[in-house]
Prior knowledge:
Radius of gyration: 23 Å
Number of domains: 2
Organism: Acrocarpospora macrocephala
Protein name: Apea-like HEPN domain-containing protein
Shape: globular
Largest sheet: 6 strands, antiparallel
Helix content: 40-55%
Distance between the termini: 59 Å
Number of strands: 6
Number of helices: 11
Amino acid sequence: MSVATVTYDFPVEDLWIDGRLLGYRGSVEYGEVTCTLCFPSAEFAFGDKKWPWNSTLIEGYRKNEEGEMVEACIQVVRVEVDVPPSLLARFPVDQSTGVVNMDILRMVENAARDFVAHYIGLIRITTGQYWLLASSSRIQSQWDEDIRDSDGKRINSGFHTMELPAHFLQPKPSLMLAQHESCLASIANEEHPSLADTLLADAGYANSRVHPDYRICVLLAAVACEVKIKDTLQVLARPEQKDLVDLILDKPRDVSIAASFLFDSGLKAVCGRSMKEENRGLWKDVDKLFQVRNKVAHVGGQGLPPDMLRGKVEIAVQAFEWLNQVIQEARSTQ
């Protein structure tokens, strides 16, 4: 007996997708297995008729004048893991009970979980849907796994992990087809989000209306901006500037420069651009972000009015967009 496919369903807590992605299936070689990511279809569930209606899978949608679903808010994604014979041979099915070896199930489920976490880690940055998952979160399959052999016959497992998600609904940017395909390609190439992007996404998660923690949000947003500007300086530095940039970044105690001034004098020294000169309002907001960060880091934010802590993710997002534009324009002139 050989296992062909192990299926897991994972909660995604309001993932907004382009309507064209409904019913989509895409496969990626992931370690020793092949993972196929499946989105629920507009008609019924995942192409089978396990769920005749989709209220638990699609909680919201937007239709155009022709009645076509152009955006959908999905709550569950499915991952089908194809287990090759070479892997199964190391963890054989117990012939006396017909139950799959626990070691292979744990290994396969971990692969599926890591794959989904990798995917969500990419798309929450690409689409700005920061509430999807904190980078430190452990995503769990929502229902029992389904295991079938190469003939489609179901195999007993005796092992599952179940965790029901909390649902909420709010309109946000939808995942587009091109973004989805780009993220799958990144997974296939073993590419992960940058630290700066991950920190920014975590700041957005802390800023969510579902579980807000504005002090954590301020800390993460500020660190994200500091990492981003330092990454930008390293990317844009010419060969003859590398030593100076490395000195500034590697030995901050020896070269005292406030983080906000890296967006001004530091960047100008490297590429002739300055946020302070080109977008003074944004630079002042970034400078204020670092000031508030220091108050939170040193005294826990005591005495700070709530309004001073809010809105910092939006500032960080604008700073990232400005820096990305600077990088893009610099590369276009090379």
